[in-house]
Design brief:
alpha/beta; 15 helices; 8 strands; globular; binds pyridoxine-5'-phosphate
Length: about 300
């Protein structure tokens, strides 16, 4: 197998997603980011030595970066809980989403268990092939569940009882000690930790100091605004994204993203993962969940 064939095999192998996220300069720097640690040396050497010039250029321009889609299926559980019955089952929904190409399944186990239940998270852990991303508050009860179930990733979010959905990012600066305790406990359990933050440079700085693996930028404001105001918020998000990548944290984004507004966010350099729920589930009512996920994947990877 020549180097290019080797690269192609490595690149497209699902078990090796790390290659898809590495900006080339990081490879040249010797793989310093936390994510790079899992890139095996022979693959790095193969890439460094025989990578053809044109492929190298495309890589440098971010042409190989694949943005992964985490499908948030909380709303499936919301419909079930409206009747306190057994259908629709989010576990079934996760399988349908995977068929459509979901790279991850995201669920929020809220303190009040208003939609996703402990049983859902346990069954998802046992059944899905995609990555399981558990959104959670810095709450001891939910932390114990998370450390027992051990999702691939936990995303720490703020939580208020009265809110309809997560409002605003986590205030890391205001509760550094608690966030650090939860982050360390999750890490100890083998769970990668992402922090859901407003595009605020001071909060991102604090996330880096705490050793977060990833930051998910809250795109809610961007989604609500139009015209010049949306452009201005996009600029704020781009600056925040740069800081996250510079800090060797994986760049994620989510909240309020739709088929219509996702492209400018998906094409931000270094974007790794988008978590999208409401828009996909809304479309799924009409076209089915597998098709809705397929269409969103096509939008973000076009
Ligand atoms: N990311 C986070 C951290 C969230 O809390 C939510 C909402 O649960 C989402 C992404 C998905 O947001 P939406 O349903 O608006 O796509």
């Amino acid at each position: 197998m020549d180097t290019q064939e080797h690269f192609q095999e490595v690149f497209f192998r699902k078990s090796s997603p790390f290659l898809t996220i590495l900006p080339y300069p990081l490879l040249e720097a010797g793989g310093k980011s936390r994510y790079n640690e899992e890139l095996c040396i022979s693959e790095m050497e193969a890439l460094d030595s025989g990578f053809s010039e044109s492929w190298r250029k495309r890589w440098k321009k971010g042409g190989f970066a694949m943005v992964e889609l985490g499908v948030n299926i909380d709303h499936v559980a919301t419909v079930r809980e409206a009747r306190k019955t057994t259908e629709p089952d989010p576990v079934w929904a996760a399988a349908m989403a995977e068929l459509g190409g979901a790279d991850g399944i995201t669920v929020h186990l809220r303190e009040d268990r208003r939609h996703i239940q402990d049983r859902d998270v346990k069954l998802l852990r046992q059944t899905i092939q995609a990555r399981l991303n558990l959104e959670m508050a810095c709450d001891s009860g939910v932390l114990a569940v998370a450390c027992g179930i051990r999702p691939d990733q936990a995303t720490l979010v703020p939580e208020k009882r009265q809110e309809l959905t997560t409002e605003g990012g986590l205030d890391v600066l205001g509760q550094k000690t608690r966030v650090k305790e939860v982050l360390d406990a999750l890490r100890e359990a083998g769970v990668r930790v992402s922090l859901f933050l407003d595009p605020d440079l001071a909060q991102i700085e604090a996330a880096g100091e705490l050793g977060a693996d990833a930051v998910e930028i809250h795109t809610g404001k961007y989604a609500l605004r139009q015209g010049a105001a949306r452009e201005a918020e996009l600029e704020v998000i781009r600056r925040a994204a740069e800081r996250i990548v510079e800090g060797n944290m994986a760049l994620h984004a989510g909240h309020g993203l739709t088929y219509h507004n996702v492209r400018p966010i998906a094409t931000i350099p270094g974007m790794r993962e988008l978590n999208i729920g409401h828009s996909i589930i809304a479309r799924a009512l009409f076209v089915g969940l597998t098709e809705a996920v397929r269409e969103m994947k096509a939008r973000i990877q076009a």
